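Thread: quick sanity check before group meeting

JM: Hey all, I'm pulling together slides for Thursday and realized we never actually wrote out the predicted structure for the chain we discussed last week. Dropping the sequence here so it's in one place. If anyone has concerns about the input, flag it before I start.
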Amino acid sequence: MIHLKKYKPDPGQEAFHYAIGRLFNYVAMICGIRGGKTFAGAREAGKQAWNSKAEPMAVFGIVAPTFNMLDRTTWKEFRYAMRPLIARENETKKIITLKNGREVYGFSAEQPDKIRNVTLCGFWVDEARECKDFKTLWDVLLGRVLSTKGKGFITTSPNSFDDIHDIFIANKKEHYGTVRFTTYENTHLDKSAIDELARLYDAKYMQQELLGQFVIFEGAVYYTFNRLLNAGDLAFKVTQYNPNLPLNLCCDFNVEPMAWVIAQYGINQQTKLKEVYFIDEIYLHNSNTIECCNEFKTRYLNHTAGIHLFGDATGEARHTDSNITNWKIIQNELSRYGVTKYVPKKNSAERDRINAVNGMICNSKGERRILVNPKCRNLIRDFEQVSYKKGSTQIDKNKDFKLTHPSDAAGYFIEKEFSLNRGRIEGLKI
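JM (edit): ok, ran it. Output follows.
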């Protein structure tokens, strides 16, 4: 029997090991991000693989949502945890042979069919919420341990009321257990660093990401927006054009309508936090990039403080009416203003943009860092009316084709400048 003597688990991790070791056949460790999930999962996987009494041909399976995630995080952590007990390794095929002869295979959840022909003595699914079809994957894994009576566990943060909630919470069976704890319970993390992260998140997203709670993301997408507080009298007062500051021009390249929003920065005198002021919008029907540029030049004829470009990475695709890209058209048309481009090579995930915008509209501390001039009627309408597809966490873009374009333009900018991915707790060994 192997016991990882140098491993000193936190109370939440200890509860997880006890649950899978003595109480249940299948366990979900559901906790806040950076709560020590992968760290504990790798060590539990190693212990189960080494101690398994199953037939020699049975292997232990480690599953990550994608091959890249397996390679960069999950497999690397397992290899580190078990390094004194590894006899040999096939890195290409993701196979580790332990010194007692037991083999450990790495799999991607993107290809669950590759698991069907393998007999497992146990399994671990890391970052389970990111698996595209967790229910199918789970059913496949259960079939692979049917003859060996091996145990299985997942490590994850919650993601609304998904398949994981259905299997381990709503319809929990007798031999299924759940261990839950927050990011704050990881004693290896600086609590002030976690608080800073909480400041980037809106209240609901903070409950999910840091407190490990299941929350509903349905209805209004930008549920933190309040017209009175984000676009009322105070917003009107502070969101006036400042000719001494650069204009952040944020573009969405839909044709009907074509929607651009214009923002500048400010500093809150009380919190000293950087704020975003949406001072104007360009919203033209059946238009094109050149017409929008002309409208911009009409409104800001004498602007001399420069322009920063943000927006849709697909604008790099060749324009339907020319041999140059939308962004190149803008750079050519507005060159006299002094243009600096901050457009990424590819768009960030829709969910990342939504979470970044909601956290800036109102974070978990009640601080509102997006203020909108009331004349930006279409952006305000988006913030109030854009909704999720029913039963989904994706934006419903078919409900009203006039919606989503100004908020998309704003979202590209906010995610680039205030990305929650930059706020992850880094450099802390857990």
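AS: nice. Residues 11-185 form a domain with the Rossmann fold fold (CATH 3.40.50.300). The CA atoms of residues 275 and 393 lie 27 Å apart.
JM: adding both to the slides.
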